[in-house]
Design a protein that fits this description.
325 residues; alpha/beta; TIM Barrel; Non-ribosomal Peptide Synthetase Peptidyl Carrier Protein, Chain A; 2 domains; nine-stranded parallel sheet; 11 strands; 45% helix
């Protein structure tokens, strides 16, 4: 049984990754519907939280249905991270997660995200400070290292465990590696097999379907898997992975009716959370993923890019249903 603090995640949890501009409450909701065992908010700026910036505070929102859920924070200043963790704790999540994995240049250039992997002593000091500042379990998401010459994750994981984190998720690339480079799970496996490690070790990177999930589970012995980009437009992947791991059976991909049903759920929840115009506009990035692989979809995609009301989106979705049914 995998546990983070007192949170029971079952025998082999499948987690939804924190993804900026993707893993908001409406998207998390549909992923939970199909079996995500634990989820995280979009990453939240520590400076934004302590300044009470509206965008950062809004990201603290979650529904009870989403539990267990972690609020993920990032930053470069230790005092700000302490205050942000305490602020986030008031929202009553299940976990506070520290982002040491974001590779985006504007984050890294300030020494936040995976940028802090250039300063491991500071990384350890910041982690210890956050652990001591809150009552909730603290977890970390990070990478193999900053670059190919500094793949120090085996040592880093030990040191972070020693200062009190209760789980670690490791993405199988360095900060400088791009997504087109295959994830290297070898060091993730070494972290897991390290006899000094006793906290859950979750693997992330290139978990794209049920078969890849089984491969990484069986080969590297991790305690669970985190799915990121493969969930875009495919919240069903959590159900598919679970079924395959338990029975070896592959579930058929959802038909057009199921896709449109779930699109409507996410649309309605997005509008409830953000308001109609913003809720519609910010969903545009999802539509192509929901209908990936459908031939002649381009005209429908353009229509979905143009409409600005819930009724407009629903009308286009019905056109899509009629065309592909």
């Amino acid at each position: 049984m995998v546990q983070i603090g007192n949170i029971n995640l079952g025998d082999f949890p499948i987690l939804l990754a924190p993804m900026e501009d993707v893993s908001d409450p409406p998207f998390r909701y549909v992923c939970k519907l199909f079996g995500a065992d634990m989820m995280y908010t979009e990453f939240i700026s520590s400076e934004g939280l302590i300044r009470d910036a509206a965008k950062s505070v809004k990201k603290l929102d979650f529904d009870e249905f989403e539990r267990p859920i972690g609020i993920q924070i990032f930053g470069h200043d230790i005092d700000s991270m302490i205050k942000a963790a305490q602020y986030a704790e008031k929202a009553n999540p299940d976990v506070i997660d520290i982002n040491y994995g974001c590779p985006v240049r504007k984050v890294v250039s300030k020494g936040a995200g995976s940028g802090i992997m250039n300063d491991i002593p500071k990384m350890v000091k910041m982690t210890e400070a956050v652990v001591k500042a809150v009552e909730l379990p603290v977890t970390v998401k990070t990478r193999l290292g900053y670059d190919d010459d500094h793949k120090e994750i085996v040592d880093i994981a030990e040191r972070l465990q020693d200062v009190g984190i209760q789980a670690i998720t490791i993405h199988g690339r360095t900060r400088t590696q791009r997504p087109r480079i295959p994830a290297d799970w070898t060091l993730i496996g070494e972290v897991k097999s390290n006899p000094r490690m006793h906290i859950p070790v979750f693997g992330n990177g290139d978990v794209v379907d049920a078969q890849s999930a089984k491969h990484f589970k069986d080969t590297y012995g991790v305690d669970g898997l985190m799915i990121a980009r493969a969930s875009y437009g495919d919240p069903w992947i959590f159900r598919e992975v679970r079924k395959y791991l338990e029975t070896g059976e592959l579930i058929e991909k959802p038909d057009i009716h199921e896709r449109i049903r779930v699109c409507n759920i996410q649309l309605e929840r997005s509008i409830d959370w953000k308001g109609e115009w913003k809720g519609v506009v910010e969903l545009r990035k999802h539509w192509g993923n929901y209908f990936r692989g459908y031939p002649h979809f381009k005209p429908f995609r353009q229509k979905l890019m143009d409409v600005e009301t819930m009724e407009g989106v629903k009308n286009v979705l019905e056109e899509i249903r009629e065309y592909y049914y």
